[in-house]
Structures are given as C-alpha cells and as structure tokens.
Amino acid sequence: MLYLMRHGAPAVAGRLLGRTDDPATEAGIAACAARAVGLDVARIEVSDLIRARACAEAIAGPPSLPVVVNPRWRELDFGTWDGLAPAAIDPAALGAFYDDPDAAPPPGGERWSSLHDRVAAALSAMPPVPTLVVTHGGAIRAALADLCGFDRRQIWAFDLPYAALVSLRIWPGPTRTVQIVGLAT
C-alpha cells in the first residue's frame, strides 16, 4: 500500500506556498496525526519542507517509524508568485498557468513536467513496503498523474484539503497497476 497525505494547514493559509517554508499549525499537525491512526505502514517518506516534516514526525512518534526526508516530494516552485495570495497575481497569468502549467509556468518558477518528473523519480526509488508519504497538494497530484495516468485536467477534478489522505494499492510488474482504494478529506 501507498498512502499520500497532504501536510496540515500552514500558518499562512490561502497562499501559493511552494518553496516558502512556512510551518504547519498545531491543529494542522494534529489533524495529520489523527488521520494516520490505524495506518499499517513500515516507513514514512516526507518533503524536506517544515510544514510536511513536522506532520511526519508527529505521525512517526512513539513507536518510532523510519522517516526518510526526500526533497523530490517538495511542492511546485511558484517562482515570484511564491507566498502570494492568488488575488495578488494577474488573473490572466494565473489562469494561463492553471490551463497549462507547462506552457505558462509562474515567472521564475517550475514547470508542471519538472514536478511530475521528480515525483516520478521519488516513486521509482521507493522500496516495495507499505509507505506513507507526507507531502504537498501539487506533489500528490503529480504522483496520481504518474501512477494512475491522470492528465492535468483530471487531477484538478477533486479537492485535496490539508491533511487529506489518498490510499493506493499497487501491483508491481512490467505494467504497473494502481487502484485508488480511499480518499479521506
């Protein structure tokens, strides 16, 4: 099994937080820890950003599970938009980004395909044991695109609020098969 969890609510919600390293709130950390109760995992992998790491550490707490920090699970880098509220960004530029984040990435930011490629590399390097990944909304969407073949429009068709958990069953082999078996929001 593979579980993908979005970090808890950040101290500054409602902004494009990519590389901005804002912490999660106490309530956000507690929401992630509560969501993880009962998960049967052998390890936890986590983005290197503090809002995800604090949640993973709370989940791993006694008994201590191995926590692997992996920067490939970082959120999309929003460039000069990083840390801004969507209302502070030119609506036409933001709309172009949401329509095609490869053709219209944020100024100085990362293309969708770059996020997808680094998340796919993180998935490929994972050992075949039940794992919880505590990461960001964009990275979860990139993982679902890689694992399930969803296109960009399909991955934006559902909400991934803070502390959301996507549960996946994976059958390895020459042609990997993946089934979403749960979405807890």
UniProtKB/TrEMBL annotation:
SUPFAM superfamilies: Phosphoglycerate mutase-like. This is Alpha-ribazole phosphatase. Transmembrane segments: none annotated. Pfam families: His_Phos_1 (PF00300). It comes from Sphingomonas aurantiaca. Gene3D superfamilies: Phosphoglycerate mutase-like.
